[in-house]
Design goal:
alpha/beta, QueA-like, Thrombin, subunit H, 2 domains, six-stranded antiparallel β-barrel, 17 strands, 19% helix, globular
Length: 354
Amino acid sequence: MRTKLSNFDFNLPKNLIAQYPASERTDSRLMVIHKDSGKIEHKIFKDIIDYVEDKDAIIINNTKVFPARLYGKKEKTGAKIEVFLLRELNKTVGLWDVLVDPARKIRVGNKLYFYDKNNKEVLAAEVVDNTTSRGRTIRFLHDGDEESFQAILRALGQTPLPKYITRNSEASDIERYQTVYAKEVGAVAAPTAGLHFSRELCKMLEIKGGYFGEVTLHVGMGTFRPIDVEDLSKHKMEAEYFKIPDATADLVNKTRENGKNVMCIGTTSMRALESSVTASKQLRAAEGWTNLFIFPPYDFSIANRMVTNFHLPKSSLMIMVSAFAGHELLMDAYQVAIKEKYRFYSYGDAMLII
């Protein structure tokens, strides 16, 4: 059964997990998969322009990653604590849901202190509740306004590179672990399929006749949590905020009416679109939260093309791509990618499914 988690497992050599991005965004490799014929082509990402036609729609996720990883110290013991910001619950009182590591050392009532480069305390927080296994709700203790608080978070925070990138965050990651069109702050991880686009490539695609449509889906940690059930129908995704503007809904619906292609850049853009479909298979402007989990078999309503990276075995991202490409074809493509030494995960290479 395609709904079994074990059907999405494969052996990935660790040396294929990209630790750094390509020297230039558009120089990543691009595997092109043709769903109808099963043909696989090997290209460079900038060649994507050859697969965009006049009046096609290209749907991008404009979410922006914020510096979500902080390091502080626990009161009294001075033990070093990692605090990973997940979502702001209440601006007025400074409430956030976070992950803490090591979680066993952090209890409700504990105070955490954060220091600048000169070892001066600039922020404090109090743990007010427990959530998931490593999760806590904390209240930041800050007397200033929202703007000064956000400035402190930007100064203290580090680019939240995924754990499988084993090196430390570097200054260059601030720019490279962000799409060139990012603008809506709220993600704890980048929509990585978009990392391959440069401003120049976007302009070239527009000149060719492609129309860009923006959606927002703030990527949360739930996207990356391991699936712990064999029966995929029992897996529950954590909700993520999304928004589809009127202009994007109009663009997509008009594009489909004209028989042109709708290309989704990344699984996050695809989830946003599939979260707001009318009974007549039209895209509806919307704003809210989605916990949609897409797994085979699934009838996609909107996009007929998709750009994505190479994902973790048994991940929700890989499973969604399988639903779009076809399970056997995708598994075969992943084996080709391993043989051809494509680079995997966030800073890795890309796949175009048409």
